[in-house]
């Protein structure tokens, strides 16, 4: 699909609104006029355009779509021939469902950020965030065989789905992608794909006193080597253990409105989820999902999962498919396998199993997926998206469908891999949220900051990276009031249905706020001084007021606002879905000890009322990988085992053990998919 490129005169307002709303492109649209006059009034009140602000204005010219990555036709991808490999020899188009799935979007999600960033510091004690020590995996499987009866049931379109016997089901053997083949030829260890590394590592060191006999092709080998190799092969895991990680996010402007086709600005936050993937010996055919933070620990027998159903030509989704809705039949096929999991967390397990079955095969390696997160759960900071990005990245790496980031990974391929991770993280978000916009998983995948808009859910979103996103003085507050994103999103939908005109205007107003903020935030001449911060702060306050009117605030959030407003230290807004969870305040520059004292007083008051205060760093890296999960110099690599990961104490312990700050980035530390050369360790 070709992205609509709009050519407009590069004036301040026109350029800045390009990505915000199609309405803005129409110079006569009321929303465009409103925002223009707002912004003009602001700049008229500033210094003349020859002063420092002229630089600010000039920088706005840089807001354009020109950096968007062009769309890519999937047929040109090295692994586009996947479908033709199925057992029943069906043609490639037969196994792709939906015309749209055959296209890659080219959405630009990769970012350019500083290599490391300080972890978010909790101000209060680590209350309530202690982590479990290792628990024994429970092997619980549905006793009934795979339910095939639902295959005969009518689907939503009224047709009777086909029955797929195991024999007729295609066995999809994934071909080596081009990058994999290239990388195998390359001696550089950091450029190997997951699968190629597995091939080189899978033969263990061998020593024997047996006489050497000539083997095939004249090569020497011993008999016991042949015997022990088959034994060792069974006992050896197929792949080394590895880890992936993805950040939390803060929505600065536009939450909820973004679900209704408006734009939002969001940035990655320095809190992260970490997923450890431990591979089991080949003769073990189980997969375990251990979400340690929520005490979810479940094991499935790989071969008894409904592979035939997921791999059937009508249902099969491929790595490069952009799936924009969940398949009810597939969900139903999964339900017996999810029954043993408590209701509250079933959606998180669904997110895993759905992607596991779509992206894997009966032959997927046996593994334990263990997740721990430093992100408060259900608090508006995108904890669910961070988890689904980790799951998506891990499953793609495991199947060899993406390669690890390295200096040799050219920019287009990096963007393509990020897109795959993001698209499948969105599928996980659909399992957890129901109706996500996709902004959370997009930021958690690409990191730094984005302007995001999804007008048409059947099409890829428009994403613009905010290259110049500034370092902002923010204070994050967690009200500790739990809530569910899915419910709040549904509430706004029903309010809009009851009051379409009024709610429509409020959503337009939020869109205007985002448009104005965009001009300040994506500007290399932005100065976090009083005048620019005041402007941003006012927009924060206006956006919060509109969210209150949409009914997504909470008395505790209003209490935070009251305390911060009362002290005069900044401007406050809820972030994420609201209904509790977190707020953030843009802080005024602190001028001397009196201001400092006010801030300390605010923090104390909030702590007395049971709320946690964080100092946040925005704009960090997106999804990253630690392959293998080990630390130290090449000659003394120490594996980071699942047990060590589970035993790490609290968020600080996790950060100290596996955080990018402690392990570094580059070949021996965390690697991030970025569109620039990673730093070598
Ligand atoms: N650490 C975690 N371990 C396992 N599951 C998690 C974890 N964090 C989040 N989840 C899943 O995500 C759900 C919370 O998602 P929800 O969207 O309600 O909150 P959020 O993503 O933190 O907030 P928002 O969507 O407003 O940013 C949990 O119920 C759980 O299913
Ligand atoms: C409330 C919402 O806008 C943000 C949640 O972080 C929902 C979404 O965009 O999916």
TrEMBL record:
Main location: cytoplasm
SUPFAM superfamilies, sorted: GHMP Kinase, C-terminal domain, Ribosomal protein S5 domain 2-like
Domain of life per record: Eukaryota
Composition-biased stretches (Low complexity): 75-102
Residues annotated as domain GHMP kinase C-terminal: 533-594
Extent of Polar residues compositional bias: 63-74, 103-115, 189-210
Region (Disordered): 1-160, 181-220
One example of a Gene Ontology biological process annotation: ergosterol biosynthetic process
Similarity-based family: Belongs to the GHMP kinase family. Mevalonate kinase subfamily.
PANTHER family: MEVALONATE KINASE (PTHR43290)
Name assigned to this protein: mevalonate kinase
Organism field: Orbilia ellipsospora
